[in-house]
Amino acid sequence: MGNELLCKVRSGGKTSQGKALLETSEIIFRGDFRLKISFASLKSTVAKNGELHLQWDGGDAVFELGERAAKWADKILHPKSTAEKLGIKPGLIISTRAIADAAFLRDLRAKAKSFSGTELLRDSDLIFFGAAESADLADVSELVPFLASAGALWIVYPKGKQEIKESHVLAAGKAAGLVDVKVVKFSGTHTALKFVRPVAKR
Fold first, then answer.
1. Domain 4-79, CATH class in plain words
2. What pTM did the predictor assign?
């Protein structure tokens, strides 16, 4: 989706060819040296002449991105809100199960054409499912019939817990006949993985 690029990077007096990855809240570079720069740490972000110039406390880097430089700078300077990353917009049919974030639920209720935090709605454009441990993932297959043809299931789970890992979530989605297409930082404590039906099965 244009957020991963082979490029040359100059930093700390060194130059390396490698892979740059623009994540939702950080930029990562893997080459002869590695960088992991959070957007929050940046003091300066400038795109000029096909180069992305970044400065943070204690360091700086220049990414040679060509025409992508301006686009990456804009994404860093104007990051999407969590709601935008999750595809939440007015007029959708949205269902949730086991989501306890009251502020998030209020936002969904305000934006959705139809919303349910109890019974799943047929032809839901979005379903948000909370899983606290791997055993909760046994319910994933029950959610799929309620998705609209091109609908998305977001599985929201705690970060850094042995009780449930990304591998557990990915396996549950695959077992339910879905494919994973996106990961988003849901909150300071939770991650959300997005699943959809394969195109051939819509």
1. mainly beta
2. 0.71
